[in-house]
């Protein structure tokens, strides 16, 4: 099945009520997802999502479970022998009223990764790119748009991913781990916007300060990505690695395969005379 046909089928599935309701532009979608649906069935308004992407000046991607298949902090915790403890804490944090920054601190206080562990972890556990992301990033850039990575993860784990995708490190927002001179863990930089609740939205506001008229789209799997719009103009949910029901329910646009967003037939191929990064 070719891509445009695939999109039409997906949109038809939404229209026919498979996802519970069809959203008008600008409205909030309240639907109850059918847990028996396959990931493919969970797509929402795919053709419109592709159009939104084509019309974006800046596309910001979440990293963990979006650009890459894994959750970096969980993988790092497992590598440092603290996987179970951290997973338990994450579960508890999600139930209660722990702020993002406190949850991050609690988990890092358990892992306490040294600089050497980080180096060895990156070498032995390179991140796995999600299917189609490399082509999608190139597609967005060829359309004259800029690509950013906005992550609640750590810059030392994300930079190799940015380099692999050809994204300048100046276009990366992520948390920064701090180390003592002997390489022991010393904490994290609490000045980074992504270290706080609502931080991805703050990162987008920073981008908007530099590019005030830009049409900005956030793409991600998580609630923090969804909540970054606004200030992002649009949000496209991604469920290719994990489908989070809250996000799939609330997102106006949802795809489970990045290749669904590449529809060159609809592409306007903007020529903005801007930095093609
Ligand atoms: Mg994520």
Outline the structure in words.
- The chain has helices at residues 3-15, 46-54, 63-67, 72-79, 83-95, 100-111, 115-124, 133-142, 155-165, 199-210, 223-226, 245-250; strands spanning 58-61, 146-154, 172-175, 177-179, 185-188, 216-220, 234-238, 253-255.
- The chain has 277 residues and is of the alpha/beta class.
- It folds into 2 domains: 3-70 and 129-266, 3-Layer(aba) Sandwich (Rossmann fold); 72-124, DNA polymerase, domain 1, CATH 1.10.150.
- α4 (72-79) runs antiparallel to α5 (83-95) and α5 (83-95) packs antiparallel against α6.
- Bound molecules: magnesium ion (MG).
- Magnesium ion binds at residues 62, 64-66, 220-222.
- This is Phosphoserine phosphatase.
Short description:
By secondary structure, the chain is of the alpha/beta class. The protein contains twelve helices and eight strands. The site of magnesium ion has 7 residues, from helix 3.
Characteristic terms for this protein:
277 residues; alpha/beta; Rossmann fold; DNA polymerase, domain 1; 2 domains; two-stranded antiparallel sheet; globular; disordered N terminus; disordered C terminus; binds magnesium ion; HAD-like_SerB; EC 3.1.3.3; magnesium; hydrolase; magnesium ion binding
């Amino acid at each position: 099945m070719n891509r445009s046909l695939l999109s039409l089928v997906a949109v038809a599935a939404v229209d026919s009520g498979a996802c519970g309701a069809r959203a008008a532009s600008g409205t909030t979608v309240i639907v109850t997802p059918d847990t028996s649906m396959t990931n493919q069935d969970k797509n929402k308004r795919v053709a419109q999502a592709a159009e939104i992407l084509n019309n974006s000046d800046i596309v910001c991607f979440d990293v963990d479970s979006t650009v890459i298949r894994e959750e970096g902090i969980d993988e790092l915790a497992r590598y440092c022998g603290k996987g179970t403890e951290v997973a338990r804490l994450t579960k508890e944090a999600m139930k209660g009223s722990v702020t993002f920054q406190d949850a991050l601190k609690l988990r890092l206080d358990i892992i306490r990764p040294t600089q050497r562990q980080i180096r060895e972890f990156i070498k032995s556990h390179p991140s796995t790119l999600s299917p189609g992301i490399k082509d999608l990033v190139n597609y967005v850039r060829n359309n004259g748009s800029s690509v950013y990575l906005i992550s609640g993860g750590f810059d030392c784990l994300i930079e190799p991913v940015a380099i692999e995708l050809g994204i300048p490190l100046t276009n990366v927002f992520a948390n920064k781990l701090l180390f003592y001179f002997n390489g022991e863990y010393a904490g994290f930089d609490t000045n980074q916007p992504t270290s706080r609740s609502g931080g991805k939205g703050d990162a987008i506001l920073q981008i908007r300060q530099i590019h005030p008229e830009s049409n900005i789209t956030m793409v991600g799997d998580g609630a923090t990505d969804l909540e970054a719009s606004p200030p992002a103009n649009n949000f496209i949910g991604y469920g290719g690695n994990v489908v989070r029901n809250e996000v799939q329910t609330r997102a106006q646009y949802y795809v489970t395969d990045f290749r669904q967003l590449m529809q060159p037939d609809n592409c306007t191929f903007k020529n903005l005379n801007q930095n093609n990064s």
